[in-house]
Write a structure and sequence with these properties.
The protein is α/β, with parallel strands linked by helices and about 210 residues long. It folds into two domains: about 140 residues, Response regulator (Rossmann fold, 3-Layer(aba) Sandwich); about 60 residues, Arc Repressor Mutant, subunit A (Orthogonal Bundle). It contains ten helices and seven strands. The strands form two sheets. The chain has a five-stranded parallel beta sheet with strand order 2-1-3-6-7, sandwiched between helices. It has a two-stranded antiparallel ribbon with strand order 4-5. Helix 4 links the parallel strand 6 and strand 7. Helix 2 runs parallel beside helix 3, helix 7 crosses helix 9 and helix 8 crosses helix 9. It is globular. About 30% of the residues are buried.
Length: about 210
């Protein structure tokens, strides 16, 4: 039996995931969490075979949580679940030792096979992501500007490029307006850009936002 910890802050989505998994004979939801700290405590106090982790948790990046979980239990498979397309976070997630990356859009079709695969210690990579990784290897000497950003800076950059205001970003990430503005300044400097319009143009050109 594969014991799963589901980490998802949206109740409807969490219940939907549980419903999908309920139909299997070899997978059981052994725990659930809606906040980062709850997930960390549950992993510390229990033994799970796979963690299904939402990348967009309130107040803390799912990538930060992923890194902490892997530092606690290096061999624990963590499958990232995200509302964001693969272009945004898939490669970053794999670099942070995720066992796979699954978009919420495809979860109903791929979730069970993905869990079974990572539970065996393997990586779950979609054909489209495999292609991106292949191109990434070919262009290994060519680093894009956004690859110089930290995970949090990258998250803020994508939200700015999506048209979100500093205030809205702060509320979504539980950060002060001043802190978000500081991130924005750092992002522009690292990417050698002057304003939000340039960020937006760059993000669209490189498929980082819809």
């Amino acid at each position: 039996m594969i014991k799963i910890l589901v980490v998802e802050d949206h109740t409807i989505m969490r219940e939907g995931l549980k419903q999908i998994l309920k139909e299997t004979a070899d997978i059981v939801v052994a725990g659930e969490a809606s906040k980062a700290q709850d997930a960390i405590e549950k992993v510390g106090n229990n033994n799970y075979d796979v963690v299904l982790l939402d990348i967009s948790l309130p107040g803390r990046s799912g990538l930060d949580v992923l890194k902490q979980l892997k530092s606690m239990k290096p061999n624990l498979p963590v499958l990232i679940l995200s509302m964001h397309p693969e272009e945004q976070y898939a490669i970053r997630s794999l670099r942070a030792s995720a066992s796979g990356y699954l978009t919420k859009e495809s979860a109903s079709d791929e979730l069970i096979s993905a869990i079974r695969k990572v539970a065996k210690g393997r990586k779950y990579i979609t054909p489209s992501l495999a292609e991106r990784l292949a191109f990434k290897l070919e262009d290994d000497n060519k680093r894009f500007s956004h690859e110089e950003l930290s995970d949090r800076e990258f998250q803020v950059m994508c939200m700015i490029a999506s048209g979100k205001r500093v205030k809205d970003i702060g509320e979504a990430l539980s950060l002060s307006v001043k802190t978000v503005s500081t991130y924005r300044t750092r992002i522009l400097k690292k990417m050698n850009m002057k304003n939000n319009s340039q960020l937006t143009h760059y993000a669209i050109k490189n498929g980082l936002v819809d």
